[in-house]
Amino acid sequence: MTIAEETTNTDTPEQAQFRAEVRDFLAANAKPRQETSPWAINAHTSEDEAREYFEIGCRWQRTLFDNNLAGLTYPVEYGGRGGAPWMEAIYREEAANYDVSSGFISATMAMLLPTLMKHASDEQKAHYIPKMLSAEITICQLFSEPGAGSDLASLACKAVRDGDEFVVTGQKVWNSAAQFCNWGMLLTRTDPDAPKHKGITFILVDMSSPGIEVRPLVQPTRASHFNEVFLSEVRIPVANVIGEINEGWAPARTVLSNESAFIGGGQGISTFERLVMLAQQFGLVDDELIREELAVAYTREKVLGYMSDRILTAVRARQVPPMDPSILKLYIAASKVQTGNLGMRIGGADAQAGSAEETIWLQHELMNRFGISIGGGTNEVQRNNLAERALGLPKEPGYDKNMSWKDIPRS
Ligand SMILES: Cc1cc2nc3c(=O)[nH]c(=O)nc-3n(C[C@H](O)[C@H](O)[C@H](O)COP(=O)(O)OP(=O)(O)OC[C@H]3O[C@@H](n4cnc5c(N)ncnc54)[C@H](O)[C@@H]3O)c2cc1C
Q: Which atom of ligand 1 is nearest to the CA of 384?
């Protein structure tokens, strides 16, 4: 029984009607998952492949938008459907049976759309939200710098006001898909005299602006997930500032919190199910130790699903989540270690050196688990967040918190 079949019995008439609409839409526009391999991976070994995957995702987002299925919980005046959070859950349940995804932009939409709802002016919401929902604007995240990762508030990318524009100079790094996106959400330093959290401005930038250079970083897999982005005297209209000038830390935190919720949310086909298939294939499905680990993987996947539903339902209803999203991100990072180790035990040498479709999937699972414990804030930083925000433990000393940013020693 699929997740969708499990849940239809409890639908209200309104929910059943929406489910039928989604089913009809998917049947008419998408390829059922059974027709695609369960071992398909979305890691790429060439720039062309990666661009194609990015563009397929954008086209799918456009199809959703054209069928009034994008931004289900966003207001109608901003291009959304104005619906309830349960619509997102029904859409996800049904779409899990199809080979569909908006790809990379689903991550930055999950981060920036709630941020715009909370911090942008009505005019900005009316301008950006429909364009993002239709994938006309695709957003990358320009936060990290060579000297500012975990300690993001120490960022140095300088923005100086010149009339109605900011002139921005600096360097960003680890910017996922920046080579494909046409806009960026950028954190800049606008007041070097203020304490580090106080002189930051959050601004949206058109990536085709003169002075922006995007250099892909090639990984050992030959893919370029990330980029370095250099900004040399880039002129950005002051009208693109989200929130207040020098108060950009507030929208930045909204982005980061939604990033943790998104990364922890987990999408697509179940890793547990694939590990069972792998165990069957390697003749280990009756092995007691493997079964015990499979049970752990199953339990963790279910717990993650429930936590994710609770957090995302609150986010979509624009309410405070019932638990800190950091816990979700930490949990999935630990789950990826457990399932990666289990996959290695099942696949043995084949898991590391094999070239069959399923072993290549396994190799990617093993490699990708490192990124998930770093991107969007490392495990250590998420633990700090939980300690301070959820458990109320004393904050880190933060000797430089009240110092002027320009007086903080930097390497
Ligand atoms: C897959 C992936 C995608 C990413 N995408 C983007 C993107 O699109 N845009 C973007 O701007 N950035 C992106 N990043 C960058 C990411 O946000 C940073 O790598 C991350 O914040 C860590 O910063 P750092 O790499 O500078 O490491 P550092 O901050 O230098 O950390 C080094 C080590 O020190 C530890 N550490 C640091 N401070 C503390 C502390 N206070 N307490 C305990 N331990 C600490 C860290 O946990 C880590 O182990 C991405 C990273 C990955 C892996």
A: 42
Mean pLDDT, the chain, rounded, equals 91
Contacts of 283 (CB under 8 A, 6+ apart): none
Ordered by where they begin, the domains of the chain are 8-133 (1.10.540.10), 139-248 (2.40.110.10), 252-390 (1.20.140.10)
Number of H helices, E strands in the chain: 12, 7
pLDDT tens digits, residue range 275-287? Answer: 999 999 999 999 9
3-class SS letters over 3-44: HHHHHHCCCCHHHHHHHHHHHHHHHHHCCEHHHCCCCCCCCC
State which ligand 1 atom lies nearest to the alpha carbon of 377. Answer: 21
The pTM for the full model equals: 0.93
State mean pLDDT over 119-143.
Answer: 98
Cα(219) to ligand 1 centroid in Å equals 17
Instruction: Give nearest CA residue, ligand 1 atom 30.
Output: 149
Residue 393, classified by CB atoms within 10 Å of its CB into exposed (0-12), middle (13-18) or buried (19+), is exposed
Is the pLDDT assigned to residue 249 strictly greater than 80? yes
Which amino acid is located at 297 in the chain? A
For the cut 80, the answer to whether the pLDDT of residue 220 exceeds it is no
pLDDT in tens, 371-396: 889 988 999 999 999 999 889 999 88
Give the separation between CA 239 and CA 127, rounded to whole angstroms: 12
Please indicate whether residue 139, judged by its CB atom, sits closer than 6 Å to ligand 1: no
State whether residue 200 is helix, strand or coil: strand
Cα-trace Rg, the chain: 22
